[in-house]
């Protein structure tokens, strides 16, 4: 039987051992990662003889006197992680416990490995099907390259002719600045300074754990024009964060960065996870590398008292209205 644990009650060593050994293991669910992106996270934990055998991280927030779940930044998926194959009964028990404890979630996302077991119990009014994109890297690079679309091959060759260099770095600040100056203003509501600080803290943790690679494209003049941060864990390479300036976009810098990672990791048992957002143009770009869509579920429900529920719905509709006007 699973039990709710407050943050201070979680045995971090037992937790990480479970994530490492789980069928679904992802870097997002490791304790040190969660400590950065969701400081006071809680969890449902099922134990057998003191060993964690199934867990569900819960990114908890507080507002209007209620605790609720909100998917953290830099954390596309969470869900249930188990040492053995999950049963429908286990999943149902976990979800029931969550709903009893938390009155609301704006969107909690499960990992791709949970998609199969969840199919039997999801209801259309509470779950939304999302997609990321995976590219297996076990074939030789030449074979993977053949799977690129015609336009992607053309743009890659064009990037190679631009005489830009791909360099590795341990300095996240140029990537932060590229995003601030070239991407942030396109995001409705802007980007809080806390998000950049979280990225810096996350990068520090990733470097300490030796699980990341930060790449930049550098022009002939020595200017950084594009950057990408990649996380390596349990056979997956996650394209966690990226940005480019106008020159980098024109020179297809991000295409060059992604191809560099693919080329150096071809003929391995790894999978490149593009961590796609639900934006058609971006998904199309990622598919141009030959990747395939992988489904995962987003869970949302609202059990707040009627006045609070109506307020949340009105606020959501207003937000959608203003987004459409931009």
From TrEMBL:
Alphabetic keyword roster: Acyltransferase, Transferase
InterPro entries associated with the record: Acyl_CoA_acyltransferase, BioF2-like_GNAT_dom, PG_Glycine_Bridge_Synth
Protein's UniProt keywords contain Protease: no
Enzyme class, broadest EC rank: transferase
A molecular function (GO) term: acyltransferase activity
Gene3D superfamilies tied to this protein: 3.40.630.30
EC number: 2.3.1.-
Domain BioF2-like acetyltransferase stretches: 156-269
Superkingdom of origin: Bacteria
The keyword Transmembrane helix is assigned to this record: no
Coiled coil: none
Protein name stated in the entry: GNAT family N-acetyltransferase
Organism from which the protein derives: Pontibacter rugosus
């Amino acid at each position: 039987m699973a039990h709710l644990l407050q943050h201070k009650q979680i045995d971090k060593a037992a937790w990480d051992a479970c994530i490492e050994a789980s069928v679904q293991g992802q870097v997002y669910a490791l304790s040190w990662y969660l400590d950065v992106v969701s400081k006071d996270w809680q969890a449902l934990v099922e134990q057998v003889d003191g060993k964690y055998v199934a867990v569900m991280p819960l990114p908890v927030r507080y507002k209007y006197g209620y605790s609720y779940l909100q998917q953290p930044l830099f954390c596309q998926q969470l869900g249930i992680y188990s040492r053995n194959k999950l049963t429908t009964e286990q999943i149902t028990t976990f979800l029931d416990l969550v709903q009893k404890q938390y009155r609301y979630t704006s969107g909690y996302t499960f990992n791709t490995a949970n998609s199969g077991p969840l199919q039997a119990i999801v209801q259309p009014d509470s779950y939304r099907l999302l997609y990321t994109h995976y590219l297996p890297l076990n074939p030789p690079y030449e074979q993977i390259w053949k799977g690129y679309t015609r336009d992607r091959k053309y743009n890659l060759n064009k990037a190679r002719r631009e005489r830009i260099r791909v360099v590795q770095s341990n300095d996240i600040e140029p990537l932060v600045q590229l995003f601030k100056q070239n991407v942030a203003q396109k995001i409705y509501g802007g980007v809080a300074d806390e998000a950049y600080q979280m990225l810096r803290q996350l990068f520090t943790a990733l470097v300490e754990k030796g699980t990341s690679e930060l790449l930049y494209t550098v022009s002939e003049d020595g200017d950084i024009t594009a950057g990408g941060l990649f996380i390596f864990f349990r056979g997956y390479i996650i394209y966690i964060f990226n940005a480019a300036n106008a020159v980098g976009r024109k020179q297809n810098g991000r295409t060059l960065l992604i191809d560099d990672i693919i080329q150096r990791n071809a003929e391995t048992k790894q999978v490149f996870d593009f961590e796609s957002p639900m934006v058609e143009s971006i998904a199309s770009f990622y598919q141009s590398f030959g990747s395939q869509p992988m489904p995962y579920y987003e869970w949302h429900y609202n059990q707040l008292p009627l006045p609070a529920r109506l307020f949340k719905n009105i606020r959501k509709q207003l937000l959608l209205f203003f987004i459409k006007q931009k």
